[in-house]
Design brief:
By secondary structure, this protein is an all-beta fold. The chain contains no helices and 8 strands. A hairpin with a 5-residue loop joins strand 4 and strand 5.
Length: about 80
């Protein structure tokens, strides 16, 4: 289990959302096999990956103006703890 420092409220099922201009976003799938899509400010897809099961999570590092989409999941501003 990863430790995450939370920086804001979660967004349900974010679609092209910059999550409050967060630099680190904690993404959690709430349904089976969810794609996480990262886009730049122009709407161009920069990358994507899958969370394979409900409860899978990852921290995504992004630029403040980049957006996250997760069809069935939560995203919140956060960051990994300092070393």
């Amino acid at each position: 289990m990863a430790t995450v420092i939370i920086k804001g409220s979660f967004v349900n099922n974010p679609s092209n959302n910059n999550i409050g201009s967060a630099r680190f976003v904690h993404c959690v799938a709430t349904g089976a096999t969810q794609s996480v899509i990262l886009k730049n400010a122009s709407g161009t897809t920069l990358g994507n990956f899958y969370l394979h099961a409900a409860g899978d999570s990852v921290i995504v590092e992004k630029a403040a103006d980049e957006t996250i989409t997760i069809a069935v999941g939560h995203a919140s501003a956060g960051r990994p703890p300092r070393s």
